[in-house]
Design a protein that fits this description.
This protein has about 230 residues and is of the alpha/beta class. Helix content is about 40%, strand content about 20%. Helix 2 runs parallel beside helix 3.
């Protein structure tokens, strides 16, 4: 189980400090949302900021491109220090081509789906992916309410990946806190993006610990239930 704090909810006036704070909590991954004001109704940061953060952090940079025509920008973000690039299936006409471009640049590749986008959009690319990111809010702003209707989608994707691409991980983004962490972990998610629940907390490091423990506890409960079922 991985917690990836989202800097979208960090204080941009002290971004380096906030990143160092969560890095010292023992996390391995930082989630970086890139928004263009077209695909989503907000604008965030570009490759220059990613490059600046790369100089001060050894974390895995999980760069989430919420932008139109991502193929125009993936190389810039990889050069800036992205370890993983996630694009939206809804944002490009040539999904397979962009996936291959990201892989050719040496980065891990993910594809994101908005809450109302069906899993069928990934049917012919699942074997190529390292991550599938399921949005549990409508993208564009931090601090939104978790959409519970996405939970069956997580469950369904988990079952599909076991057959098609067991190494691909399920990531969820939106409204993640202690309570929803339990729900998505039970459904099959492995990477949890948490923004406001971490950076708006009076103690971000404790918030990370609490979310991670809640998710792990749910995983342990699931394993125990399966084990008891086998014994019976």
């Amino acid at each position: 189980m991985t917690i990836a704090p989202s800097i979208l909810s960090a204080n941009f006036a002290r971004l380096g400090e906030d990143v160092s704070l969560v890095e010292n909590a023992g996390i391995d991954m930082l989630h970086i949302d890139i928004m263009d004001g077209h695909f989503v109704p907000n604008i965030s940061i570009g490759p220059a900021v990613v490059g600046s953060l790369r100089k001060v952090s050894a974390l895995e940079f999980d760069v989430h491109l919420m932008i139109e025509h991502p193929e125009k920008y993936v190389e810039d973000f990889v050069k800036a220090g992205a370890d993983s690039i996630t694009i939206h299936a809804e944002a490009t006409r040539h999904l397979h081509r962009v996936i291959q471009l990201i892989k050719s640049l040496g980065a891990n590749v993910g594809v994101a789906l908005n809450p109302a986008t069906p899993l069928e959009m990934l049917t012919y690319v699942l074997q190529e992916l390292d991550v599938v990111l399921l949005m549990t809010v409508n993208p564009g702003f931090g601090g939104q309410k978790f959409i519970q209707e996405v939970l069956p989608k997580i469950v369904a994707l988990s079952g599909i990946l076991k057959e098609v691409n067991p190494l691909c991980r399920i990531e969820v983004d939106g409204g993640i806190n202690v309570e929803t962490a339990r729900l998505v972990s039970k459904a099959g998610a492995e990477i949890l993006v948490a923004g406001a629940a971490v950076f708006s907390s009076p103690d971000p490091q404790q918030a990370i610990y609490d979310i991670l423990e809640a998710a792990k506890e749910e995983q342990r409960d699931n394993k125990n239930k399966r084990f008891r079922g086998i014994k019976q």
